[in-house]
Predict the 3D structure of the following.
Amino acid sequence: MFLRIILSIFIVFAALTSITSGNAQDKKSTDSTKMILAYGDSLMAGYNLQKGEDFASQLEDALISDEYDVIVKNASISGDTTASGLSRLEWALEAGEKPDLVILGLGANDMLRALPPASAKDNLQEIIEHFEDDNIAVLLAGMKAAPNLGKSYRTEFDAIYPALAETHETVSLYPFFLEDVATIKELNLDDGIHPNLEGINVIVENIKPYVVKAANLEKVEGN
């Protein structure tokens, strides 16, 4: 048991100390550069994808192509629940530059494990309050429960994200992170859960306007 705890701490520490810019060649920031942090689970982390194919990398590339001065950091860890995301939050914030916006994408693993929606909501609430205390805006990437979990569970779980966005002025809502990707075979890996590169690109195009608005991005002058 002790060895398992030590190993878990090491894995989290290694992940946090390797928080990197989405761009494979780390972009140098200027006074006008907006810093965005992708804080989620395997859906954002780039599970079983090549380097540079993860959500943060693809979002950064897309925003830069649209002439926005941004750096998108990947602080997502595969397997994270809302509870584990909460437990590593302070380490993650101390590991790099303070972000202007956090894209918060946790809750999928709570749902897949059929953990109580009320607990997931409480954890997300606490995470959001941490960001609020640091004056960091949040774009909350919503998740939806699988049909096999039953109507009661789905109703309670699906209501988490709109409710949190409604009660926090600093929180914007992107209703469903996997919009236009979930259940579409061609856009997912063989497990049918995690998006492939094509799926990531669909997510990026869908969420991009929300990111621009939530981070108050302005195009680089002169371009």
User: Anything to note?
Assistant: Strands lie at 20-21, 34-40, 70-74, 101-105, 137-141, 171-174.
